[in-house]
Amino acid sequence: MKMSQLMVSTLRETPAEAEVVSHKLMLRAGMIRKVAAGVYSYLPLGYRTIKKIENIIRQEMDSKGGQELLLPAIQPAELWKESGRWQVYGDEMMRLQDRHKREFCLGPTHEEVITDLVKRDIKSYKQLPVLLYQIQTKYRDEIRPRFGLMRGREFIMKDLYSFDRNQDGLDESYEKMYDAYCRVFERCGLEYRAVEADSGAIGGNASHEFMVIAESGEAAVVYCSECNYAANQERAEYFWEQRGKEEDSKPLEKILTPNVKTIVQLEEFLNIPAEKFIKTLFYQVYYADKEELVAVLVRGDRDANEIKVKNILNCLDLELAPEEKVAELCLPLGFVGPLDLYGKIQILADQEVMEMVNAVAGSNEKDYHLLNVNPARDFQVSKVADLRLVIQGDMCPKCKSSLKVTRGIEVGHIFKLGTKYSEALEANFLDENGKAKPFIMGCYGIGVGRTAAAAIEQNYDENGIVWPMPIAPYHVIVIPVNAKDEQQKKIAENIYESLLAVNVEVVLDDRNERPGVKFKDADLIGFPLKIVVGPKTIEENLVELKIRRTGEEERLEVKAVTAHVQAKIEKEIK
Amino acid sequence: MKMSQLMVSTLRETPAEAEVVSHKLMLRAGMIRKVAAGVYSYLPLGYRTIKKIENIIRQEMDSKGGQELLLPAIQPAELWKESGRWQVYGDEMMRLQDRHKREFCLGPTHEEVITDLVKRDIKSYKQLPVLLYQIQTKYRDEIRPRFGLMRGREFIMKDLYSFDRNQDGLDESYEKMYDAYCRVFERCGLEYRAVEADSGAIGGNASHEFMVIAESGEAAVVYCSECNYAANQERAEYFWEQRGKEEDSKPLEKILTPNVKTIVQLEEFLNIPAEKFIKTLFYQVYYADKEELVAVLVRGDRDANEIKVKNILNCLDLELAPEEKVAELCLPLGFVGPLDLYGKIQILADQEVMEMVNAVAGSNEKDYHLLNVNPARDFQVSKVADLRLVIQGDMCPKCKSSLKVTRGIEVGHIFKLGTKYSEALEANFLDENGKAKPFIMGCYGIGVGRTAAAAIEQNYDENGIVWPMPIAPYHVIVIPVNAKDEQQKKIAENIYESLLAVNVEVVLDDRNERPGVKFKDADLIGFPLKIVVGPKTIEENLVELKIRRTGEEERLEVKAVTAHVQAKIEKEIK
Known about the structure:
2 copies of one chain form a homodimer. With 574 residues, chain A is of the alpha+beta class. In chain A, helix 1 (21-28) crosses helix 11 (448-458), helix 2 packs antiparallel against helix 6 (167-187) and helix 2 (44-63) packs across helix 11. At the A-B interface, strand 1, strand 2, helix 2, strand 4 and strand 5 of A face strand 1, strand 2, helix 2, strand 3 and strand 4 of B.
């Protein structure tokens, strides 16, 4: 493709709408354009990257026996009412009526449609397992769409659904997908981690997220520095070793702490480190049939892990209790402690709290705290468990090595669904004994646009995008420094033609622009390789090859360029 | 792929919902499934054909310099209000509101979005021409969706838009697309015709439809038996030679024809052939600022071509006048004729009418007709023109050879838009003199699912689909006649493996089914080639190769199969 004909216009300034790097750079490099909030057009450069990611995904799904199909975006309300999700989804689901006033939604996901399809087309265990996938456009009416392709309202996803006859089959399908996902992100040239994710009520090791590692990532990822343990922070566990009492317990003491309410204020006021405090948090907890207030105790220097709390309570949802709920207990906010709560409400204590000695806690009396609080001696709790967020330096639950925390962007999620949808939609097959059984399902998603955006968040510098070779829109740009110099122009064109002839994806910057403009555009768009045909070297029949990622430069004889470039590309594309 | 693992279930019975062959066969062969009226899931077999058609289109668009992008399905109302089409589209446009009550539609087409994009990203004539295309899902809320993929509410289209600096540029882009479209349908292995289509007010040779020839086609196609002239029937012209008077005119005569109102009744009653009658039709004609009643005269054996009438009147729309409109003229329906109408309303006469001698016409008096009516002598008209539908046997307007009429299915449409959208959306570029000018646009569509359906309408027999090789879901099926015979099974598997090894798209029917079931399924799905490993031949180390289209059978040595099959496939895929 010649740059003069390529539908691309780069922007020097960053549009005000963009907050994150990938969004800024995709706009500036002319890869996407906004049509409405969370709704984008993919320009030719951007769409090339999207298609490359799609093709890698397609190959890996096919290699595991996946069969590609295409389900509609428009889905009848009836199916969603059967599964019970028509109500659950709320405002996030885009809904519409057709001319006959029949209700539809624009699919945010396709469990209902695929389950209904398989229910009608697959009758026997002999036809199982099947792995069905599509690469398709999904809709979610995000309350605040932002970050470009990272959180859009219309977005491209690969979703695969597995149907098995039993749990072993599901485990096998899940394993296949786990492997395929690793291959996908590896082949995209990304640094990623597969982390255990919380799977709520289903429990077990039934869900993994695939995270592209990036400082700007929205989620914390915990991983072991030595073994392969990795989990997202809300799911992560650690190896806990009881320390044993380090001092003798002292008598309880009440002290005046006027207006000293937060841990930070207390640390300063008392000159005692936060790890000596007991933090008492109140949660409003929701069940299907009731709600209640629950106290959660963690050490002053720890954060409660709400997912762990939620799983222990086996509740539908929870949130930090609003002030008025706590006020109902007639307790003074900022001075609340675990004493005397027992019997009034449920109290959950993090395991670390129970081994504290002579701790500081609220007194439940305004302007007073207690010193030398000793759990068990001074207060009782309903349950003790691991309730806190893991932090850097905690011990790996598998190998006791030191855990590290980094940030990542979720680009894939695999999930064992079980019979949730097959039971709701009465999707059964006949087993070996002719007995009807619900399909055992799994679902497996990759955000395609999100993967492109995450790739940029992981691979950029101050000049623009630094594409990994496998998903770069083009591999090479050829730049004649002076477009009016006939010799440079001719040599550049020859190199371009000979690269094209061996199917290298190459752009010739044939524009009549200053060299600075051409170099800036090349860096911004992020061509992995740049071939510069300039006055300095051309007399010796040499051109420069610059590597975008490393900044390395080498001089090559014109006739050696094609083979050299081909080899470089092949090395980086698996 | 092994048949036991392929997600396909064939149906012996035709589902009641299907009326046309392609719909029936796509359902029966397990290619599509209905999700809602006009909304389908494409199963793996069906989607393979769709993807093959898409890839042929993609290659041909790219070869003409087309650049692929992807525009959103969700489009903001504002853009459509700017172009004036938000109102025009009516109920056919699917509309929705997001959570903030902002109005959107699901794009039935993308002129607005692409024009807005190009307006913002292309500034100079130096960047022109550009040809931008997408293969994307479109939405039209058809009042009566039917015929499967032929007329859906959610469907896949390729739409390309050309942007040029002047009319010559547009002509060139149009020519490129015309050629590309011919290549596409040729490469799909379809018999098609590019026909001139009516382009309404724009006029000129500015629109072509691409029709797949099929008896079940919804449109009549006129083409020359000798030269390359072809047009859809509403557009078609013919060479008209005045016959000259064949007899002397006789005096006007009024005869009693009680209750004889239609041409057929008159033919019988008077024993005079229909070609001697003058048919007087009344149309209610709509303009932007008024409406009027117009009379159109054609010979009794001809049909008026409403498009020709519309173009001559240069009106917005017309329809056969409702009875009450005609009644306002105090004329007796069934006995109306051209006499005495002149001055009351506009009268258009087909050119053939004016050379009629001693014709029969209505008398404008109940129960009476007139004999020996002679145009000019007996009545005057406002305008004479070619106003009738061309029929088989008319003379070609280019070469005077005999015209033929066949039926076809419209699968593509190319159109010179000019500045309609660029002016409405103020989409300008700067020309060589720095002057702002609107882009000159063209648009070019192919219905992808429709092409698949049309391919079936053209290629089927009583046993099922007869896929053209280039768009068959798979090329070959290997069938061991007796799945329990180890020798047959082994040989079938070996053939399957060796075909796979050379990238032949092959299915092995490894199911434990009766031979009849396997053969029926193979024919229904339409594999172009069938390799039968059966008891009759296997002792001699031979297998049978059957050609689906011709029914030919040949016996091949097992070791010769792969090369033979490969050669057969290559021959048919261009």
